[in-house]
Batch of 3 targets.
Target 1
Amino acid sequence: NATSDEEFQNSLQETLKTISEKAQTVVGQDNNLSEEELAKIWSNLGIGGEEEADGGSGFANLMPLMTNMMQNLLSKELLYPALSELAEKYPVYLNENKDSLSAEDLKRYTKQMELMKEVCNEFDAELPEDTEAVKKERFQRILSVMQSM
């Protein structure tokens, strides 16, 4: 939602500012880099916090990088083996421990299991001939489910 996106953007900008300040302190001491040189490095990476010459923000340039990183982290190769194993073992765990779990924990764990299965189903539906649009749509669904989890 818009509030979460705005909070994420603010948090990300604050983190980048802190990284930039720390990098300037560390790198500046060793190599005597000026503030302009450090800003140029950040700009070349496409993640500067200042307004760019073309009028876009550094945050806008960072989004493709973050999206690519998230796609890699949420890829079938990385996520599917662990989630499918968990989804397979979760029902057994819940059945064996249902008496020792609080009603709230049982409800939360059951929901997590359902969400894991949903992600696994998305990965199972993946086909080698899927178009980029289909892959992007699937990634958005997986990202949404992972956020719910």
Target 2
Amino acid sequence: MSAPFEERSGVVPCGTPWGRWYQTLEEVFIEVRVPPGTRAKDVRCSLQSRHIALAVKGQEVLQGKLFDSTITDEGTWTLEDRKLIRIILMKTNRDAGNCWTSLLENEYAADPWVQDQMQRKLTLERFQRENPGFDFSGAEISGNYTKGGPDFSSLEK
């Protein structure tokens, strides 16, 4: 079995003071650097459909209303090597036109260049799903790719 599209094509991260976040068609990934030696019992993480709250050792790290809705029951967090918290959120709206421009409604926005790269990647990921026999991981895209690019689904095959 081949690697998922995002692993072959790389990620387009948006840096933040606490780490970074990035997205695929289906998921939003959040990576938070924490002090080395952090234990799971030091972490308080609440994942709701439109809200996230993360505190480490009683200090709020991340809290607010998410840019868009997620599936609450499918959100997870893990503590890796006692120095990184990885949060995975499952998007409710999973089409290429749903490119989050920021992690929270008014915070951690991707700069215009990063936003453009994120949208390009999601559009290529959509093309990969629609054409499973082709490898788009090294492809470049130009032209109309905003909102997920052109819709070719009505064309005859």
Target 3
Amino acid sequence: MLRTLDQRALLLVILFSASVQSTKVLSEWKKCGDPECEKAMSRVQAITDYSGPDCRYLNFKTGEEIMVYSKLSRQNENLWTGSKGKDFGYFPRDAVKVEEVLIGEEVEVLTKETDFLCLHEDKYSYG
């Protein structure tokens, strides 16, 4: 009985730490095309297949087009956010090539907690 409780407690600790790790803030700052990060900054094309580590990341295949809406800055500058159809998420900038720049000047803004949550069927969840 005690062994079963120990195993359950260990499982809960593992599940909790995985949840906390997947929802951690990836950067405190990001660069956008406007203060609200609503304007697309650029149109890029995937130069490699990419599958992210959790639901916060955008998965894509070589050749697909992605609209970029923000770029993390100061920390994790290699991560950009964008959309492909209805899918939205982070991806590494070296997995794409810029096809068209849509804004003239980038604005640096603080990230929000909701920047690092997953959106599933119009509901937020944690990675």
